[in-house]
Amino acid sequence: MSIVDPLLVAAILREVAAEIILPRYRSLAAGDVREKNPGDLVTVADVEAEAALSRRLSDLLPGSRVVGEEAVSLDAKVLDRLREDGPVWILDPIDGTANFVKGSERFAVIVALVMAGRTVQGWILDPLSGRTTIAERGAGTWRHGERLQVVPPGPLAAMSGAGYRRNKQLASAVRKIVSQGSAAHDYLDLVGNRLQFAYFTRLHPWDHAAGVLLHGEAGGYSALLTGQAYRPLPSEDGILLTPDQASWEQLRRLVAA
User: Fold this and answer.
1) Is the pLDDT confidence value at 1 over 70?
2) What is the CATH architecture of 156-255?
3) What's the fold here for domain 6-147?
4) H/E/C letters for each residue in the chain?
5) Segment 151-164 mean pLDDT
6) Full-model pTM
7) pLDDT of residue 202
């Protein structure tokens, strides 16, 4: 059973994107962009979209709390909410902010709902296409009425993946490795059969909580590089996502090399 109506949340995401994010796309003024940390950009659209999503999603689920990327950048203690038992929304108002600033099409809105330390629902909206991909624990991954499945495993030499750390041994064993600058688009490509694997070394919950659920509910296999199951908490362990456990074992040896 859904905690909240997934289509209602999807509608909220589209409305916030239409009202706040898309009007700034390729129209940012100089004062609309700043650095939170060296090389880590935030725009007025990130801040305003997170505020709107926080308000509207909290109203939708009374008693819920919010962990947003921009709120955490101001107060790291906000992350402590992820250890509570009650419902927590995890928000990335614009995943791929650097792409958004450059005018690239690879940016997205990510929302996850966590209960007792587990992601139970997740959404990724591609604002430019208007497509929202939704997952619910135990109910599959869906995009506008179509149930999605990861591509079946195949030989490593035919696999394409996403990665953000140079690894010559891995690169020589697979077909291609891309770095898109947007975890959301990596996850969309994993469930859209354009990528077969992805590995990430820095796990901010707002980047991965929804995507890991989307991938798992589409039939994929994932685990931290330590072998432990993913939980929506900050981690430096790294995660590897593949079509099945056998290909995970093969790729893990290369990723860890």
Assistant:
1) no
2) 3-Layer(aba) Sandwich (3.40)
3) Fructose-1,6-Bisphosphatase; Chain A, domain 1 (3.30.540)
4) CCCCCHHHHHHHHHHHHHHHHHHHCCCCCHHHEEEEECCEEEEHHHHHHHHHHHHHHHHHCCCCEEEEHHHHHHCHHHHHHHHCCCCEEEEEEEECHHHHHHCCCCCEEEEEEEECCEEEEEEEEECCCCEEEEEECCCEEEECCEECCCCCCCCHHHCEEEECCCCHHHHHHCCEEECCCCHHHHHHHHHCCCCCEEEECCECHHHHHHHHHHHHHCCCEEEECCCCCCCCCCECCCEEEECCHHHHHHHHHHHCC
5) 92
6) 0.96
7) 86
